[in-house]
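Before surveying the methods themselves, it helps to consider a single example record, giving the amino acid sequence and backbone structure tokens:
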Amino acid sequence: IKPDYAQAYYNMGNSLKDQCKLDNAIEAYNKALSIKPDYAQAYYNMGIARQDQGKLDNAIEAYNKALSIKPDYAQAYYNMGIALQDQGKLDNAIEAYNKALSIKPDYALAYYNMGIALQDQGKLDGAIEAYSKSLSLKPDYANAHNNRGIVLNNQGKFEEAMSAYSKAISINPNFAEAYNNMGGTLKDQGKLKEAISAFRKAIKIIPNYAEAYSNMGITLEINGQLEKALEIYEKGICKVPENTLLKMNLERLKSRLVPSWHINMMNDTPRNDAYYDAIKLAVSKYDTVLDIGTG
């Protein structure tokens, strides 16, 4: 009836994007743009679709085209910042966030993501400032409280970090990462029992939280509870079999539990081969053997 209806193609693109049919969505946006070349929103949503595909250069190109049509498009600058950040172009990402904020000064998410970029650059004071600005606009932003806590911990400001994690948890009681981070800060303070309790809470919320299992195991080791640490590493591997760190921690602890005098004997290949050959001669397939210890 109306084949040149650009908005219909645009709406179709949005619907297809919501269904994760990204190639079809991009095709619909392109049809909308062929009819209405100055359709900034179509370029913007095409950028989102490209970003969801992991095609970050194409996403940035689409955002730039949206901005060439609509220079005050704060969301386009913000999403461009995320794409640049994912590419590791942190200075460019921060510049994009600043442009978004110059248009929309109350953009809490822009301050938050700027904080992450600054944190990744090691600019901790700048990160704290960005997170604080985000929280002044959105006081119930649990992620910002949590990230602010991480930075404060890295600065050695343990009590302030604990306060930030506690605030995050008061907003989101199921915030497993905040409990895990709280455990790390408590461990750094030497409060090992409290740290173990925090890691346990994180695992209760997310039973396959590999990092929390690893942190709990290390803390138990520091506390001298080696057998318990072994149990935690094994339980973590049961939940997350592919986790390399847990496997490394388990093997390291197992080697630590072997008495030092036993190491040379274990590595004495000729001796071990001789014992093995002797046992094969002395023991038949269905014999019962009582092992009363060797060494």
Notes: The two ends are 91 Å apart (CA to CA). The mean pLDDT is 92.
